Amino acid sequence: MSDSNELEVESISPFGPARSTIKGEPLTKEEIDKFNDFFKASLYLSLGMIYLRDNPLLKEPLDTKHLKARLLGHFGSAPGQIFTWMHFNRLIKKYDLDSIFISGPGHGAPAVLSQAYLEGTYSEVYPEISEDEEGMQKFFKHFSFPGGIGSHATPETPGSIHEGGELGYSISHAFGAVFDHPNLIALTMVGDGEAETGPLATSWHSTKFLNPITDGAVLPVLHLNGYKINNPTILARISHKELENLFRGYGYEPYFVEGDDVDTMHQAMAATLEHCVLEIRKFQQKARESGKAFRPRWPVIILRSPKGWTGPRKIDDKFLEGFWRAHQVPITDVHEKPEHLKILEQWMKSYEPDRIFRDGRISEDLKDLCPTGTRRMSANPVANGGIIRKTLRMPDFRNYALKVDKPASIMAASMTNMSMFLRDVIAGNPTTFRLFGPDETESNKLGKVYEAGKKVWLGEYFEEDKDGGNLAPEGRVMEMLSEHTCEGWLEGYILTGRHGLLNSYEPFIHVIDSMVNQHCKWLEKCLEVEWRHKVASLNILLTAVVWRQDHNGFTHQDPGFLDVVANKSPEIVRIYLPPDGNCLLSVTDHCLRSSNYVNVIVADKQEHLQYLSMDDATIHCTKGIGIWPQFSSDRGEEPDLVMASCGDISTHESLAAIDLLLQHFPELKIRCVNCVDLFKLISHDEHPHGLTDAEWISLFTDNRPIIFNFHSYPWLVHRLTYKRPGSHNVHVRGYREKGNIDTPLELAIRNGTDRFSLAMAAIDHMTGILGNRGAAAREQLRNEQLKAKAMAFEVGMDPPFLKNWTWPHTGLWSKGEARVASEQHLH
Questions:
Q1: Domains of the chain, first to last
Q2: Residue environment code for 106-133, b if the CB has 16+ CB neighbours within 10 A, otherwise e
Q3: Cβ 457 vs Cβ 210: under 8 Å
Q4: Cα angle at 781 between 777 and 787, to 5 degrees?
Q5: Mean pLDDT in consecutive groups of 10 residues from the start of the chain, 827 residues
Q6: DSSP 174-186
Q7: Sequence-ordered list of residues with C-beta below 8 angstroms from that of 434, at least 6 positions apart, any chain
Q8: Considering only Cβ atoms within 10 Å of each terminal Cβ, which end of the chain, N or C, has fewer?
Q9: How much of the chain is helix, strand and coil, in % rounded to 5?
Q10: DSSP letter assigned to residue 690
Q11: Which part of the chain is the Xylulose 5-phosphate/Fructose 6-phosphate phosphoketolase N-terminal domain (predicted)?
């Protein structure tokens, strides 16, 4: 008995004559013949890359000696991607389109590389790989081969901004690329396996942020070839109507092209792509002529074609074309089975290489199907964004300085102050800079930026949005509660020649760990590719930090993103922890001006003590690490103790600990060291920012205890300093995965980073200097710590005299004065 709620079932086979939403026959018979030959040439190159090391045109009978020893690469998605690319070339020529191609399916390089070779771009960037038989042999060998080019669309691939190594980011990268590029169309292939990822699912909503007046357009092509590595794909196994409803629900107008009959598929794809391009142009013209931004139903194409299209349907009675076996290397045992080698040879010869390639080059008639110059998608300068990158117009960050007459005596909101600088960066670069973040800009105390550019919004507006909504279609702030999509937008934006910054809560930046990993790898490879121009740095501002997530509890306490970044190549990552507002300004200015880095800035958004004047902050940040004499008592002598800190809240507690120690032991010679640039700690041999050992000893000594209060997990500092002279003297305090709904001081106490714990640790490690004289002081410090903790449990607040602590500028107290003052405060 049928269930009335059962979903409809219909034929969703990729085989048969073309079935398409748009009808029409825009191609002549002659054009179809040319497209067939161009398709064959592309498919031949794709198989040649996977299999051949020699005999590139099969002039000799195929032998195992002609094969690569290791067969690597993926063929399955290549035919559909090639088919889409070559038909879009017709429209680029007809309408003079400015376009790039983004290959979303994993290991999609054969499709992209074959087009780059046929368009001539590959030989331009790699002159040794010429368009002749010898060049073709090198081209084949170059693919997935040591010293060659990868099977993804890596940085070595002309025309690529998207590697596709990790799936899920093609759409967000594409939209990032077209923001503020009003004439650009990003033709984006989305693999049906990729479409199952969370990041891809959220990125469909990017149309709600696309302004048809100022932005270009993304034309997504969802490629339903049915299978992943060894499994059906979800979207390929749901009904036509359900798929149509899904994309209508997303706000798109879906157009289907389905089948495997090549001649009829040519007409269907040509008609559908042209219809979509005209729709895009119609929407843009309407918006630009009226001056009114609106959100149309942007087109999306759903291309259903067999996996491994045009390959053998079966081999040894096992399915190949249209099945998962075509996903990677379609015939894996050609070294061992002569009969399978023969099948491969027959398959490759079915593409007629002897006719189509004349001395390794296609005819001028076929070449004429390709655009020329920078209209080739493989040669578009947008995909080598450093070529078109403009230098940011930057205000002087010194003009936003916080006034600091006496160090550690005034409280100010460093982030709120910095937001005025960021506001003017946005104002000065209205088409080349955007701020990205997952619905946290206002929460992160960056609300001043709305004075220069509101939040981009093309959704519905309510009357109450006028009351602080800060929404506008022409905004400059990109907010969506998806860290993946925001990060993808930013990556696409900077890779295509612009600048930006992502702000996020520190605990949840882990959502994009792997995305940042991939971008780091991209930049690292770009350093090895001579023709790749430098792009603006990817800048990440982390706030709402672990030490001020006391009210949100344990789930919001995680500073471990720094460990992820520290694992990446020292050539392309930087981590900065400015201790106060003026340092934050200096660091932000430096990061926004830089190129080819991933910069991570960690700074809290609440009010904090301010330590340095702007002049001092600039010097300190330029050095990256240094002694703070204003908080030191060694005065040029050999110190008894080094108190070091890295991070704004960690610095506060470290200075308060110095104050406590000098109250009890005014004769102690304490050296205060502060670190802004985390990689100063690592050896100069391992990171270009690292201190030499001589510089290390000049700051930290090699024979004195070092109490290092660190913002993040303590193990990271140990890892960075393990080779240093006297590294056994480095005692690091940091977050130790202890938390709850705490007061700020109680949270620090849980993790041993509070002033009392630091002072007691210093006493414990100075027994050689203090002997047992520290016992009484240690006991008193422990008592004070317990009383403070008890007060937090009793009234839910830290003792005001601890919360409002400032540096004593009246001079160092005697031991007796310290005890009296301390007892008065606690009682």
A1: 19-160+169-376 (3.40.50.970), 397-607 (3.40.50.970), 624-826 (3.40.50.920)
A2: bbbbbbbbbbbbbbbbbbebbeebbbbb
A3: no
A4: 145
A5: 56 88 96 97 96 96 95 91 98 98 90 96 95 95 89 92 91 98 98 95 97 98 92 92 96 97 96 98 98 97 95 92 86 95 96 92 95 97 96 98 96 97 98 95 95 94 90 96 97 98 95 95 95 97 87 83 95 97 98 98 96 98 98 94 97 98 97 98 93 97 97 96 96 93 90 97 93 93 94 87 88 42 39
A6: HHHHHTT-TTEEE
A7: 179, 180, 426, 453, 476, 477, 478, 489, 490, 493, 498, 500
A8: N
A9: 45, 15, 40
A10: P
A11: 27-387
- The beta strand positions in 137-261, using DSSP E, are 184-191, 217-224, 252-258
In angstroms, what CA-CA distances link 491 with 26, 161, 179, 590?
A: 37, 9, 12, 19
DSSP assignment, residue 709? E
498 — alpha (psi -120 to 50), left (phi > 0) or beta? beta
CB-based contacts of 179: which residues, under 8 Å, 6+ apart? 210, 215, 216, 434, 478, 489, 492, 493, 498
Whether residue 180 contacts residue 95, with contact meaning beta carbons closer than 8 Å, is answered with: no
DSSP state of 459: S
Question: Strand 410-413 and strand 607-610: pairing?
Answer: antiparallel
If 0-12 CB within 10 Å is exposed, 13-18 middle and 19+ buried, where does residue 806 land? middle
CA-based Rg of the chain, rounded to a whole angstrom?
31
Angle, CA 536 vertex, CA 450 and CA 534 arms, to 5°: 165
Distance CA 151, CA 148 (A): 10
Q: Half-sphere exposure of residue 282, counting CA atoms within 13 Å on the CB side?
A: 10
The tokens describing 396, both together, are 């002087």
Amino acid code (one letter) for 460: E
pLDDT, residue 816, reads 40
Q: How many CB atoms lie within 10 A of CB 765?
A: 18
Least Cα distance to 32 among 21, 18, 45, 12 occurs for: 18
Per-position DSSP letters for 4-45, written without gaps between them: TTPPP-----S-SS-EESS----S-HHHHHHHHHHHHHHHHH
Nearest to 187 by CA among 199, 173, 197, 200: 173
Please give the Cα distance from 338 to 348 (Å, whole number). Answer: 15
What per-residue confidence (pLDDT) applies to 10? 61
- pLDDT at position 322 is 83
Copy the structure tokens of residue 451: 């004075």
Per DSSP (E only), the strands in 246-370 are: 252-258, 298-304, 314-315, 318-319, 357-358, 361-362
pLDDT of residue 190: 97
Class of residue 685 by CB neighbours under 10 A (exposed 0-12, middle 13-18, buried 19+): exposed
Calpha distance 257→265 (Å, rounded): 8
Per-residue burial over 455-491, b = 16 or more CB atoms within 10 Å of its CB, e = otherwise: bbbbeeeeeeeeeeebbbbebbbbbbebbbbbbbbbb
Six token digits for residue 706: 């070092």
Give residue 314's Cα distance to chain centre: 41
Q: How many CB atoms lie within 10 A of CB 629?
A: 12
Distances in Å between the Cα of 186 and the Cα atoms of 88, 221, 244, 256, 533 are 11, 10, 22, 19, 20
Location of structure tokens 């005596």: 409
DSSP 577-600: --SSHHHHHHHHHHHHH-BS-EEE
Closest by Cα among 56, 47, 103 to 309: 47
Contact 67, 51 (CB under 8 A): yes
Q: What is the pLDDT of residue 811?
A: 53
pLDDT at 550: 76
Residue among 543, 551, 540, 539 at smallest CA distance from 507: 543
| CA pair distance 397, 532, nearest whole angstrom | 31
Supply the pLDDT for residue 808. 94
Please state the pTM of the whole predicted model.
Answer: 0.95
